[in-house]
UniProtKB/TrEMBL annotation:
It is a multi-pass membrane protein. It is found in: Cell membrane. One of its GO terms (molecular function) is transmembrane transporter activity. CDD domains: MFS_MefA_like. SUPFAM superfamilies: MFS general substrate transporter. This is MFS family permease.
């Protein structure tokens, strides 16, 4: 592997490893709580993880714009490793320790995840790759971890128990921290004419997200579709499977088909996506990946057809996500990229706490079939909303395609163009 590929490879492995660790954690901890406590306690522990994650990610933007993102990411993963190790060492930890540890893990992972998003365009430039390819490779890492992680967690818990599974998650976080730490930025970027107040800097990022039309459209789309996706997965799919006599196994097979196909299509998009008109890739991808998998349930199609539709939906997911992320990276001002990525990611989660309640209320009002049709139509309208704001074509020049590499400056040094380095 050439030197320029080192930072990109390290970041991709770090993302995949951290996500796999979280998948292990998010199955092992609820399993531990359920076996020793109640479902209410399991829900409380899950909330202790999610809420700090969203809040700290949204607030971390100014930090990411003033500090090397590799350091923020490495620090977050290291804190997570220590917190998980504490749970593993406790054997059967009390509820207060579970809640505290999960809150610490969520608070550390929010900024760390945003930092890796901020770092990705720079390491893609260092590898001399187009932006869509770097984003597609990141989607491959994420989808692979999301698909394999839960299966690995279930197998490890059944074979070795929750304590050893938690030790493995802690080890994964430690490895990802070390990998990300070695991605060096030569200088600290100077932030010109920035207000001193952290809240003022944060507000500057909020203004950019909501005043820039592409960013505003993409953010609104994320909020709506993530809320609908959560309601679909948590409430509607299990309810549909039960009412149609398919059971939990078939519901899991549907989601696995989509996840596996998304990995394969993201691999293809990594090599072909940069040659496709980005607007076309987005439009085709979102239509076949979003409303189709909801409407096919409303139509009560045969099981084989449903599995095929979900696999095709996975293909679309692997196509449109890189186009969206590359657009965000290109339209975000370089000096505000940390705030933009952190805010867009955090805002995309805000509908999740009410998603389940929204879905159950809709089912009570118009029954399951009516709810599925309403979700499908709402999903279609949401994904069509930002189409005109997606940049039409990937940039022809790799360097011109992405905002200038992050520039870092220490006192007494001069500013110069830099690229990420892989430390030895």
């Amino acid at each position: 592997m050439s030197r320029s590929w080192g930072p990109l490879a390290a970041l991709l492995v770090s993302r995949a490893g951290a996500l796999t660790g979280h998948r292990l954690l998010l199955l092992a901890v609820p399993w531990l709580v359920i076996t020793t406590g109640t479902l209410t306690e399991a829900g409380t522990v899950a909330l202790c993880h999610t809420l700090p994650y969203v809040i700290m990610q949204g607030l971390s933007g100014p930090l990411l714009d003033r500090s090397p993102p590799a350091r923020v990411a490495a620090g977050g993963d290291l804190i997570g490793a220590a917190a998980v190790a504490t749970l593993a060492a406790a054997g059967t930890p009390p509820l207060w320790l579970l809640m505290t540890a999960m809150a610490v893990i969520g608070a550390a992972d929010g900024p760390a995840a945003a930092a890796k998003n901020v770092l990705l365009p720079d390491v893609t430039v260092a590898a001399c790759q187009p932006p869509d390819r770097g984003q597609a490779l990141a989607v491959v890492a994420e989808r692979a971890a999301s698909t394999l992680g839960p299966a690995m967690a279930g197998l490890l818990i059944s074979l070795y128990g929750t304590s050893r599974t938690l030790w493995l998650a802690s080890l994964l976080f430690s490895v990802t921290s070390a990998l990300t730490w070695r991605i060096r930025l030569a200088e600290r970027r100077a932030v010109a004419s920035e207000p001193d107040s952290y809240l003022q800097q944060l507000w500057a990022g909020v203004r950019v997200v909501f005043r820039d039309r592409p960013l505003r459209a993409i953010t609104i789309m994320y909020i709506v579709t993530n809320c609908l996706d959560s309601g679909l997965i948590v409430i509607l799919i299990p309810l549909w499977a039960r009412e149609n006599g398919h059971g939990a196994t078939f519901a899991g097979l549907m989601l696995s088909a989509a996840g596996g196909a998304a990995v394969c299509s993201a691999i293809a998009a990594a090599w072909l996506g940069a040659r496709l008109p980005r607007q076309t890739a987005y439009l085709v991808g979102v239509i076949i990946s979003g409303p189709t998998r909801i409407i096919v349930l409303a139509l009560d199609c045969p099981p084989t057809v449903i599995i095929v539709v979900y696999a095709i939906a996975g293909v679309g997911s692997g196509i449109f996500n890189p186009a969206l992320r590359a657009t965000i990276a290109e339209v975000a001002p370089a000096e505000l990229r940390g705030r933009v990525f952190a805010l867009v990611d955090a805002l995309s989660w805000i509908g999740l706490p009410i998603a389940g309640l929204f879905a159950t209320t809709a089912v009570s009002a118009v029954e399951l079939t009516g709810t599925l049709w309403a979700f499908g139509i709402a999903y279609l309208l949401a994904v069509l909303y930002p189409v005109r704001r997606i940049t039409r074509h990937p940039a022809l020049s790799v360097v011109a395609a992405i905002p200038a590499p992050r520039r870092h400056r220490e006192p007494g040094t001069t500013s110069r163009d830099i690229t990420p380095q892989w430390s030895t």
